[in-house]
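User: Show me a protein chain along with its predicted structure.
Assistant: Here is one chain, sequence first, then structure tokens.
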Amino acid sequence: MSLRVLVVGGGGREHALAWRLARDPDVGEVLAVPGNPGIAAEARCVALDPTDVGAVADLAEREGVDLVVVGPEAPLVAGLADELRARGVPTFGPGRDGARLEGSKAWAKALCERYGIPTGRSRAVTSVADGLGALDELGPPYVVKADGLAAGKGVVVTEDRERAVRALEDCLLRGAFGEAGATVLVEEHLAGREVSAFALTDGRRVVPLGMAQDFKRALDGDAGPNTGGMGAYSPVPFVDAAAARAIWGGVLARTAEALAAEGVEYRGVLYAGLMLTADGPRVLEFNCRFGDPEAQVLMPRIREGLARALLACARGDLGDQRVELDDGACVTVVAASGGYPGAHETGFGIEGLEEAAAIPGAVVFHAGTALRDGRVVTAGGRVLAVSGLGDTIGRAREVAYEALARIRFRGMHHRSDIAAAAAAEGGAG
């Protein structure tokens, strides 16, 4: 097998996917749309808008690709997988109907309620008055979420009712997230420890891939505003065998069954963000694609079988496919632009990329970079995801931070406590 694979997207997640697929013995060539300077080292990049469904599908046909792997959520919500499948191109990623699992938090919550998938109580509202009632009903800490896609930033968790009311008004009155905030989900606050679980599905079978924990807050100690993610690690040592069974069977397999019962042919990755409560795992949210930065800790741990399994999902026939993960651990730390997740400047030169990549066990994934006059510069809020592999979480963490210390650009900031608690607990791979 010598597959031609097209990776759609240009962020850190897509760099991790392209990096892993370029090293897969079943893959002959990787293409990317639009890619980035890091992806260009692994794939042939084509400058197209990933949400231009027709143009991307034309490219896939013209290049005769054997498999398309869609990285970001926006092209999936736009129906890229539907168009590709209509043209007979095997595609890893759900169609527009399945992408509602991420594209509408209210729809996903309703699915959970209909099929007994464990989650917290919630109310979907479209007016501030109804939102105020929901805040009073569910009580503090208050959880307010924009219903649609908001790049990981449409969530407010606060003890302060005035702050929760402002979050409602930002969405429903001030249009802070456009159509994504036209409906707001007010949720019950769940206490426990968070974990992200990833499985592959062909619409019928579900194959566990792995788990990770990510860090959403901008600053050390989980302080500061929510971001798209400032780091992650895998595996997650506090998930015991009983919790893992409840996650794989009681949440992800049940979700696949629910989607099938709704007439949704879901072929892609099922990603559940979960809270491990005293009563067992509860769904916080679903994503219809690999996480970012979780992909940057999962992809380096994969030993073999990824391309074959993704193609089997795309064809609707997973069979007995498995993806083998390394027994060790991976930690990734995001280097962000000054001011992120708020207003930030870009276009600054990045130094030390080669030195960082030369650290044994380190991989530098480009998330928001561009090439200007032959030089790699910052081009986004989250600029790089620096991953480290090791026998234990502690060692992987040391590698990631050692590599990160080689990198410099104006305004760069990062958290210094990614995976610190897990390493202190003696988390082994």
